Structures are given as structure tokens and as C-alpha cells.
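Deliverable D4.2, example record:
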Amino acid sequence: MSTVVIAGAGPVGLTAALALARRGVDVTVLEQGPRLATESRASTFHPPTLEMLRELGVVDTLLRAGLVAETFQYRERGGDAIATLDMGVLAGDTAFPYRVQCEQSKLTPILLDALPATAQVRFDHAVTGVETGPDGVAVSTNHGVVRGDWLIGADGAHSAVRHGIGAGFDGSTYPGRFLVASVDEELTGVLPGIAPINYVFDPDEWLVLLRTPDHWRVLLPTAGDTPDDVELRRLPERLTRVADLGRRWRIAHATLYRVHERVTPDFRLGRVLLMGDAAHVNNPLGGLGMNSGIHDAVRLTTALADVLAGAPERVLDDAARQRHTVAVEHVQRTSRANWSHLHGHDERYRQQLRTLAADPVATRAHLRRACLMDSLETTA
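Output generated by the structure prediction step:
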């Protein structure tokens, strides 16, 4: 019997495990896969996330594995930069006035290695059912039942924990799909002046270019009704329109996925907490999903550890309501606005960006919102 059972050994679940273990809480992590996931997935770490990872003692290792991005750009397709935003204006707000580009698959081993020996991580343990009571939880897995006083669902958008407790997940699905290609190319020579992070406007085919330590990643919008194999065959031609290398791009990996915007009504239901993609999902523009999920993990486990130490349970209720408010009013609202601006052709917005980049005070205010610093001041 564990004090806290955690479903999911991704960035959110392992952050929750480490935060609790550092408070002396007994944890058991259940991961359905045979090992840590190796897919790239999220790759941007914002300043407040880096601060949280510093408190957990893992940020220095992440910085060595990642790439520091001090600026990011908004660009016109086939043209020059519209605006370059310098994150150095946040130097008075944070010890990390930059983004770090690093695949989440590099963070999870760091978190796993940092766990004390008292924390258990059980791979190949898929959650198949959940029973809750006033004094604890019983989690059914393919290897039997694991019991605990509390259960954290950090097991992704298709969360077995969320399904097991019958929690809703209302919202909508975006039209079309997103296609992400990781390429073995160095693009700075063929796209002079690009930043490590680039949001490229075009009413017909907007795109995002992100540098990671191992690859450039290209995100493209894709029709929703075309077979996957057709879209993947078209990818080399589409990449040539991004930049003509005089040959086919070297594609390391490509994936298609649908994008949803959904949130569960309650992040706490009795002895169960939901966080990360198990509690809320949004489009990836702005890199808010993993970051807000890590924030969920730190804020909710802090409250849970306080309750376990004797604080009233309303502390946990307040934290759960606060994280729900952040998911709706900050994460979803901002990511939706990012998609709308890239998808449209609003010259007035482009001029606003130019004005913004020329004003350090306005840039600071914008970046505090964009990297979720302001969201951490949200009340329940």
C-alpha cells in the first residue's frame, strides 16, 4: 500500500512523483509502457517551469541536454521576420530569461534518475480500473490491484484514471490535423536570420519551425480527411516549399495527429487528482501543454503534501480549482489565440507585433502571459 499512486511516467507523472518524494511521501508510479516513452512530443520549457525544475534539483542536467533560446520570431511565409522578441526583458523576473528547447523524452530519464530509492516505478502496469472510497483507492492493473491513500491521474489525454472515475472531458476538436516532421537539416543557412523558435504566418499554409538539440521540427496544418499515407507522401514536396535545398529533405520522423481542446470539470474528485493531459488538452502552439502540466504537478502535489502533513483539505480543493481556472483562462485562451492569428491574415496584428517588439515594457508584459508566469498568480 502506497500513500500516493501515480498513473503515468511522463513528464507530469514523474514531476509529481519527485515533488512528493522530496516531501517524504511514499509514491508508486504505474506506467503502461515497458519503458519510458521515446517520442519527441513537447520540446519547449518556459522560464517558470525551469524554476520549478530547479527546486526539484534537475534543471542543471536539463540545461546541459537542451538548447537555450533567448529569442523567438514571428515571420511572414517567404519573407523576413515580422518581429523578434527578446526574452532578456524577463531578467528582472526570473533566473531563466529564455526558453529551453529539449525533447520531453530527455527530461523523463532525468526525473527518473532523481527519484529516491523509496519511490517505486512499475513499468508494464496498465491501469484497467479504479475504485475509490473515503479512505483510499484501489487501482486495478494487468498485474493485479495496487492500493493507496490517494491516486494521481497523469496518464495522458486518453487517461484510464479519468475514465475509471467517470469524469467528463468536454470540449472540441480542431478542423484538420497537425503534421510534425523532425528533420536532419541545418536550416539557418537556407533561411537566414531565423531564430530557434519561429511562428510563420500564411493564410493558406502557416507553419512553425522549432530547433531542438537533435533536429529542426516543422509543424504544418493538414487536411482532416486525407489518408495518412497520402499526407506523408506529400511531405517532401511541402518541405521544399518551406525551403528549397536542391534535394529532398532528410526526414528523421513524421507524425500526424488530431488536436483537441478539452478540460475535465474537476481536477479533484475525492481521493483522485487529475493533471496534465489527463485533465486538459489544447493545441501545441506556444508550447503550453507540457509546461502547464508540470505546473499542475508541482502546485497540486505541494497542496497534497501539505494536507498529508496536517493542513485542511480545502488547501487541496483551492489548488485544484486554481489549476482548472488556469487551464481555461490562460492555457486554452492563449493557445486558441495563437492558432487564430497564425491561421488568419490580419495585417493589423502584424503591426501590433512590430510595435510590441520595439517596446521592452510591452514585450515583458506579453512574455509574462505567453510563458505562463502570470498564470501562476491566478486565484481559484
